[in-house]
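== Item description ==
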Amino acid sequence: RNSSSVRATEHHLSMASSATAGAATVLAPPVPAEEVARAEKMAKVVLKANNYLAYYPKIMPTDDLAAITPRLAAAMSDDITWSTCFHSNFIANLCYYGFLPIGMEIAGGEKSVMLPKLHAQRCLLSFQNIVIHGSARRAAKKYRLTMNRDFDAVVAGCRRQHGRTCWLYSPLVAGFRGLVGAQGPTQVVSVELWQDGKLVAGELGYIVGSCYCSLTGFYTVKSTGSLQMVVLGKLLQARGFRLWDLGMEIPYKKAMGARSVPRNTFLQLLAYVRDKKIDLGDIDVNCADVLTAAAATTQPPPSSAAAAAAGDSSSKRAIQAEDAGAAGAAAADASTAQSSAPTSKKQAKRLKKMALKQHYKELKQAARAQAAAATKKEPEASAQTAEVAAEAGAGVTDAMLV
């Protein structure tokens, strides 16, 4: 680690210690004192065998997450914090404040620690940008999507798919299991895709208010993983979810139409939606029914992906303008829409190809613009943005949501 990074983290920790001198902000019930004591004792053991962790902020249930999260967002040069507490209530609060918990294998007597991550760039997918291919719609009638039918089978499927790289270590899985069906700020869910009673794909995720976060998934039959995500996304959209968090940026997510936003922008958006709770209820649906309903209500995706990905105030104005345009289009006369529709399947295919080509071009332009903006950003500006993010979604409007 470079010295400036270490100094920045140390400076943050000194601020955090004074910020947590009072009572901690607790949303889920407090973690039992004996669990906290055990985690603190374990942390000392872990540090002796893994001294590199001293360069990263340690987070415990006694920390005031409301106070330290914006400071961490401003001071951290990367994504990682760490903890030895896997209690469900602690995980619930971490997710509420924007941390994405994963596990990491370590040396010594303890086999894993939790890494609550605050990604420098968070990958988000607009529900309107989900593309439903004809092949997916035709195959969908063979599958059913459920939630929370077989948590353990989904965990096992993820472990098989990802092998040694899978971060679902037992202590973290136990913490997640305690949040399945929970009534607090965070609910962990398992999503299952079934074909003739056989589990063929699935994922783990969690819900915070009207934000859904995808953690990890698996598939056993070709294309079922993509189908599961498409159906899930359209189901979430139909139920009123506002934000779909995909965590770390990976090429396949970008190919789906996802975009990355800076850490502080994500924290603002999450703060805006996390208290608007949505009860999904019992989910057991035919995939074709979900896609058919979605196709009947789908609006064209926004065209200025480049502006949206930049994450600045001009981006937000652009998105607001697009939303206003989309609302106007929705209110337009149906006969006008019909008259502008393609006259043949061949023409429709050509137009779709042109639209996708333009979309990916805009994504590349957005990435270049975002990288250029990041190099010009002053530390003071970053700190000011973090303080804004600390105010529960201050300045965020519905039109700014992806």
User: Anything to note?
Assistant: The beta strands are 100-105, 112-117, 121-124, 143-147, 187-195, 198-208, 211-219, 243-247, 259-262, 284-286. Residues 264 and 386 are 6 Å apart (CA to CA). The mean pLDDT is 78.
